[in-house]
């Protein structure tokens, strides 16, 4: 029986995945807002100390998006805090627990290179100038691509397999963040063209049943993405890792 920790495991794709893995016999530890505020570096770090000391799979699926720019009590833009900082911190703090497992996996639901939108705003990571929800979301997606590359580079001797996975268009309810009439249009498109959360979770369940053997794998709904793409640039990954380490040093 595997122990699976799912950040963002109480609703959406993470919640559907938690249900499927639990029914398959895994011990699932879903993390939701009732367990910790993942927009808080301090609470995320404290949460890591309460989780099992041996973890087979860590799924990073938590995110929060808003049309308005919201700043956390610790001074971080909310999307960046939960989508980037918490994922970096959980992977790093739970690495010892993962390395006690036989075939540990980190599964990060992320942007995965090749989608021509968004960039890292190196001079303004907290988006104090010209914030939009799309800009924050796309920066988070690009940052998570670099998190995968950075983890593999920083821990070259670790047996942890890091998988970046983009499920593409999923009817996960994100359209509710928009104002009308955009909400109705995006919601209708998601219902018509998007996969259900259950379908997305089934694909992830199959992936975790037969995980890739490479230390870093990038998939866009099962299709491999070359690691030679600029979105996985090693110098950019190292730069981001250094910045995130500085931002979380007091946690």
Automatic annotation (TrEMBL):
The keyword Ligase is annotated on this UniProt entry: no
UniProt-listed InterPro entries: NAD(P)-bd_dom_sf, Sec_Metab_Biosynth_Oxidored
UniProt keyword list: Oxidoreductase
Molecular-function GO term, any one: oxidoreductase activity
SUPFAM superfamilies referenced in this protein's UniProt entry, alphabetically: NAD(P)-binding Rossmann-fold domains
Protein name: NAD(P)-dependent dehydrogenase (Short-subunit alcohol dehydrogenase family)
Organism: Micromonospora pisi
